Structures are given as C-alpha cells and as structure tokens.
UniProtKB/TrEMBL annotation:
It comes from Microbacterium arthrosphaerae. Pyridoxal 5'-phosphate (PLP)-binding protein, which is involved in PLP homeostasis. The keyword Chaperone does not apply. This is Pyridoxal phosphate homeostasis protein. HAMAP family: PLP_homeostasis. Residues 34-225 form the Alanine racemase N-terminal domain. Pfam families: Ala_racemase_N. The lineage of its organism: Bacteria, Bacillati, Actinomycetota, Actinomycetes, Micrococcales. Belongs to the pyridoxal phosphate-binding protein YggS/PROSC family. The modification N6-(pyridoxal phosphate)lysine is found at K36. It comes from the Bacteria. InterPro entries: Ala_racemase_N, PLP-binding_barrel, PyrdxlP_homeostasis. Keywords: Pyridoxal phosphate.
C-alpha cells in the first residue's frame, strides 16, 4: 500500500513535469490507472488514495471486477480493450467511457444496448496507427466517417480519439499523427477534445503531443500478475 502510494505520487510528479515542459497545465491531463490482471481490491486501494479513473481492457474481467468493487462515489471505469458487439450491454452497464470504439457495428451495438434511463455513454474513436489492419482501431482514412456515424447515435457522445503507439517507431511521431486525427474528428464533432494516449513507457511524449487522458498501468500498479 505504501509502495502503491509512492509509485502513484512519483508518476503524478512525472506527469506534472512533462506537462510543464510542454507548456501545459497538469490539470488538463486525466491520469487513468490501468488495473487489468490485478484484483478488485487494488481498485479499492487506489480509490482510497484518491484515484477516480481506472481502466480495464478485458470485458469479462472488467464486468466481474466492477461488481466486486461495487458503488464507489465518483469512480469512473474506462473500458480500453477490444469489445465484441454481443458484449455491448455488459460494457455499457459498467463503463463511464469506452476508449475503443473502432467500427460502426460496435457503435450501433453500444447504442442499441442503451436502456431507458441510462446516461449518455462517452466514447473515443480508437485509431490504428500501425500498417497492420489486424490491430485494433479504425484506419486513419476511415475515422471521419466513423465520427459522423457515431455522432448520429443519440445515446453516445463522441469525446475524441484514442491510440496505442506502435512498436518500432518513436512514439512522438505516432502521437503527432494521432493529434492530426483528433483535428479531423473535431471537424465533425467540434467539442470532441479528448486525446487518450500514453502508457507507462511513453506518457511524457503523449503529453507533449496534447494527450488529455493517460492510461498508465505498471508504473503505478507494479508488474502485472501472470495472466490466468
Ligand atoms: C495495458 C494497457 C495500458 C497500460 O499499459 P502499461 O504499459 O502497463 O502502462 C494502456 N492502454 C491499453 C490499451 C492497455 O491495454
């Protein structure tokens, strides 16, 4: 617990330093702690340390953990993994924000999964910054059409873009491309100002490229337990 608190504080200090170096106000940047593969108790501990944004990338683990953690006032769950359309209701039921909207069918499924009284779901359009179409994310050439489609679904609110920096390329270059895609999306949805980018190894570069939401796991949680 003390270690967790020290790692959290150290990461927050590095975030503040990177923001200042980029001429930005650290309060513009939301730090999401990625808790995948860790037990629900870690989320509760983090909450006790003031963390209000946590991220999960596997739907089943996410749904289970959200139930186990229960209602914690102000806690926001960010879903950052590949979502199957037939799990849209489960994702929608537990997530405050879905970072991984990458196709029109998934947008339609998330919209159709809304139940009366559900709040509008914040979504980010995940861009594929690699040349490999098998990776998650919409191809950059198609992000504008996806934005227009999602913006037409009243139970979704397009907030911006998300990406993972590809291996084998300096992250700064990839994040600059993402910044350009964010501009494209804002041409369709003017208030879609969020940019979700930056993980343990590259969050300073992401902040320099305008990231508003960082998804940081191991630097805060420590090494992930073996996946089951
Ligand atoms: C696991 C994960 C992260 C966090 O990774 P770390 O390197 O541990 O910070 C961020 N984004 C996504 C999509 C992830 O799956």
């Amino acid at each position: 617990m003390e270690d967790l608190s020290a790692r959290l504080a150290a990461v927050d200090e590095r975030i503040a330093d990177a923001a200042h170096a980029a001429g930005r106000d650290p309060s513009e940047v939301t730090r999401i702690v990625v808790t995948k593969f860790h037990p629900a108790s870690l989320v509760t501990e983090l909450y006790g340390l003031g963390v209000r944004d946590v991220g999960e990338n596997r739907q089943q683990e996410f749904s289970r953990k959200a139930v186990e953690v229960g209602d914690l006032d102000g806690l926001r769950w960010h879903f950052i993994g590949q979502a199957q359309t037939n799990k849209a209701r489960a994702v929608r039921a537990a997530a405050s924000v879905v970072h991984s909207l990458d196709r029109t069918r998934l947008a339609d499924a998330l919209h159709a999964a809304a139940q009366p009284g559900d709040p509008v779901l914040d979504v980010l359009l995940q861009a594929n910054l690699t040349d490999d179409p098998g990776r998650g994310g919409v191809a950059p050439a198609e992000i504008e059409a996806l934005a227009a489609h999602a913006a037409g679904l009243p139970s979704l609110r397009v907030r911006g873009v998300m990406a993972v920096a590809p291996l084998g390329e300096p992250p700064a270059a990839a994040f600059e491309r993402l910044r350009g895609l964010a501009d494209t999306v804002r041409g369709v949805v003017p208030d879609a100002t969020w940019i979700s980018a930056g993980m343990t190894g590259d969050f300073a570069e992401a902040i320099a490229a305008g990231a508003t939401h960082l998804r940081i796991g191991s630097a805060i949680t420590g090494p992930r337990p073996e996946r089951g």
